[in-house]
Design goal:
Elements (H helix, E strand, L loop, with lengths): L1 H23 L2 E3 L3 H9 L6 E3 L3 E6 L4 E13 L2 E13 H5 L7 E6 L2 E2 H9 L5 H9 E13 L11 E13 L3 E13 L2 E11 L2 E13 L2 E15 L1 H7 L9 E16 L5 E18 L14 E14 L2 E11 L5 E10 L2 E10 L4 E3 L4 E3 L2 E9 L5 E10 L2 E10 L5 E4 L3
Antiparallel strand pairs: 1-3, 2-4, 3-4, 4-5, 5-6, 6-8, 7-8, 8-9, 9-10, 10-11, 11-12, 12-13, 13-14, 14-15, 15-16, 16-17, 17-18, 18-19, 19-22, 20-21, 22-23, 23-24, 24-25
Helix pairs in contact: 4-5
């Protein structure tokens, strides 16, 4: 009886020690290399897989064996991807019965050059998207974790996940836009890509984004997210590239601002923008444009450059329609005036509503024999494709003197052509 007890005790002790050792240190073997290679080859049969010895570590609480290999390589057509590790699990029961199969793989890459990775991926599937990416990306590095599951037939399920980070990436496109120092965290699933903690430099302008979401819907890509900046000093060249297309009739000179921008756009399979929406909240420290307004008859000291400062405005651009609202200080002549405004442009009609408080600058209307240095001017109207201006109302208030005009149409020389709207 004592012998049986001792044998049982020793057996339990040895089993316990084995479990502790296997769950802490594990053992190395090449027994599972073939099974892991077969699973990877299901991604592409022309892949070459180089595996080192595999370590088995017991998980006694879930009764599973964790399988891990380090320092592996994937090869295809002389292109190599270095793998940090490959991890999978099998049940302890299936191992004992020698009827085990691998149902999932977790693959972690080493730091990879993005151009080499894209070239490697194109050897599997040479899509237009990969071709374009390879052309516009000149440098950058990627580290990724890949989770794959296999169905009963051994094929990869659609619930795969790829996440990781991009570092120090540089790309350029359309020979106009240069993006450098692009860093972000990404999460990729079928027809879905989420990008977060984005920092980058666009044409030497430092920008950041909390999140950008890209979805593939049928043959289109939907891209939405936010881009923010603080104390951004935009020179003439970048103004022409980035803002001039939205406001082609305005000649920008200088812009210094901080902004919060939310956008959504759709790109078709030809990489053409089908739809674009932008909502921005902007604080302008300094903004100047070339004066193209023929207002010398009303503002005799009007300058060649109009300067705006301390402006708060909001911008909405929805399906080629533009809406702007704002307020702040403006220097049209010699001293600061106060300005509030709202503009909208839809089709070929430009609507406006604005008020300006002249503090200490000359203002005159010769045909009314009106001359003042302080006044509140308000106007609302629209401008058509013929550059005719319809004034719904125009009013001037200066203490006791008040002038109001309703429903007036002017030509581009500010000559009255008729009463009533167009």
């Amino acid at each position: 009886m004592k012998v049986i007890f001792k044998v049982t005790l020793i057996s339990v002790f040895l089993i316990g020690i084995s479990i502790i050792y296997l769950s802490t240190f594990g053992v190395e073997t090449d027994k599972f290399n073939n099974q892991i290679s077969k699973k990877i080859l299901q991604i592409d049969k022309k892949l070459e897989v180089e595996l080192r010895k595999i370590k088995l570590v017991l998980d006694p609480f879930s009764l599973k064996i964790n399988i891990k290999t380090v320092g592996s390589k994937l090869k295809k057509k002389n292109k190599i991807i270095e793998i940090e590790n490959i991890i999978t699990q099998i049940s302890l029961k299936s191992l004992i019965s020698n009827e085990f199969s691998i149902e999932n793989l977790q693959i972690s890459t080493k730091s990879l050059e993005i151009k080499n990775l894209i070239s490697f991926l194109r050897s599997f599937q040479n899509t237009p998207e990969l071709f374009v990416l390879e052309k516009i990306i000149s440098k950058g590095y990627l580290i990724a974790d890949i989770e794959l599951e296999f169905n009963s037939n051994g094929k990869i399920k659609d619930n795969y996940k790829i996440n990781g980070l991009i570092k120090d990436t540089k790309l350029s496109f359309l020979n106009r836009y240069d993006i450098q120092n692009l860093d972000f965290i990404f999460d990729f699933q079928e027809n879905y890509l989420s990008i977060s903690d984005v920092t980058f430099s666009l044409n030497n302008l430092k920008l950041l984004s909390e999140k950008i979401l890209i979805k593939k819907i049928n043959d289109q890509f939907s891209i939405g997210g936010n881009i923010n900046n603080k104390n951004l000093d935009i020179d003439k060249k970048n103004l022409d590239l980035l803002i001039k297309p939205l406001l082609p009739k305005i000649n920008f000179e200088k812009l210094k601002l901080s902004s919060n921008n939310n956008f959504l756009l759709k790109i078709n399979k030809k990489f053409e923008v089908d739809d674009f929406t932008l909502e921005s909240k902007i604080s302008i420290d300094e903004f100047s444009i070339i004066n193209t307004l023929n207002l010398k008859n009303f503002l005799p000291n009007i300058k060649e450059n109009l300067k705006f400062s301390d402006h708060e405005l909001s911008i909405k651009y929805i399906k080629e329609s533009l809406y702007i609202e704002g307020n702040g200080d403006v220097i049209l002549q010699d001293n600061n005036d106060s300005l509030t405004y709202s503009f909208s442009k839809k089709d070929n009609i430009f609507n406006f509503k604005t008020s300006i408080r002249i503090n200490d600058n000359p203002f005159k209307i010769d045909f009314l024999n009106f001359k003042k240095n302080k006044a509140l001017i308000e106007l609302e109207g629209s401008k058509n494709e013929k550059k005719e201006i319809y004034l719904k109302f125009f009013s001037i208030n200066e203490k006791k003197d008040k002038i109001r005009i309703n429903n007036l149409t002017l030509n581009k020389k500010f000559e009255i052509i008729k009463s009533g709207g167009f």
